Amino acid sequence: MTMTVAVQLPRRMWREVFISWRFVSNDLWSTVVPASCFVVAAVRHAGLGAAEAAAAFAGGLLYFWLFIYGSSLINQITGVEEDRLNKPFRPLVTGDSSYRGAKARLMAVSVVFPALGWLLGVLLWALLWQLLYMLHYAWGGHRHWFGKNLLIALGVVSQLAAAWQMVTPITTAVWQWIVTMAALTFLIIGIQDLRDVEGDRLLARRTMPIALGDTRCRLVLGVCCVALLPVTHFVMVAPAGFHWWTVVIDAVLGGASLLLAGRVVLLRGPAEDHRTQRVVEWWYTFVLATAIVLL
């Protein structure tokens, strides 16, 4: 029996890793990757040694995996029927996870995640994130675009504040970054709703494309995308001074801003809108990666 357990336990653990990957793989570029970049920025800012830096990065990686795992579970548990229409690749639709199994995993993550947050010194941010995703997915916050965008922006605060605080205290300059990223996210997060209009109509949601109309919404989002560059320049890049690498960062951010604006306004349809949302995630990740040299 002992041999059987010794053989089955690694298999079950690997299966759980695989299932968690199936739940979170579509959201890594909006959570695990950019937040890990911010952890690295905090490590560099704090001047940690190699061993401390490696421990901080490993802790952050696990924390943000659980960060998105919990919200992905509640999102997909409460949205199975929508996913059959908009995202048929998700595990509750494909059968990689049962509904009962997903609920059991959510209960486990709901305990393990704040426990890890406590160990890393960011318990309050972990609890805030759990409250936000329950408000968003389970208690109706996603039904109107303003509430949805606001909750996601507050989620950015909980994400980035935890990423920095688990390494070193948050300074005024870091708070400026965090608040700016939350505000910019509020302005452009409606891009993700352009691809899901059919499913959102089915569930009687009032997302930005539904509330404003497709064309008007795209124009508003296009203007917001253009506004990304001056905001990131004056709040994030300019305080670091004039260097060749700040010029490169500004150039990349400017190109990304214009690319996003052009894609939002000109390229339409679920497939193109999905690609545009990917560009948003890459922009978000790049901005936070620049914190490694700018902060």
TrEMBL record:
Keyword Transport: no
Keyword annotations: Membrane, Transmembrane, Transmembrane helix
Transmembrane domains' residue ranges: 28-46, 53-74, 106-129, 173-194, 215-236, 242-266
Gene3D superfamilies attached to this UniProt entry: UbiA prenyltransferase
Coiled-coil annotated residue ranges, if any: none
Topology of the protein relative to the lipid bilayer: Multi-pass membrane protein
N-terminal signal peptide: none
Organism superkingdom: Bacteria
Primary location class: membrane
Keyword DNA damage annotated: no
Localization annotation: Membrane
Matching PANTHER family: CHLOROPHYLL SYNTHASE (PTHR42723), CHLOROPHYLL SYNTHASE, CHLOROPLASTIC (PTHR42723:SF1)
The protein's name in its UniProt record: UbiA family prenyltransferase
Organism from which the protein derives: Streptomyces ovatisporus
Taxonomic lineage of the native organism: Bacteria, Bacillati, Actinomycetota, Actinomycetes, Kitasatosporales
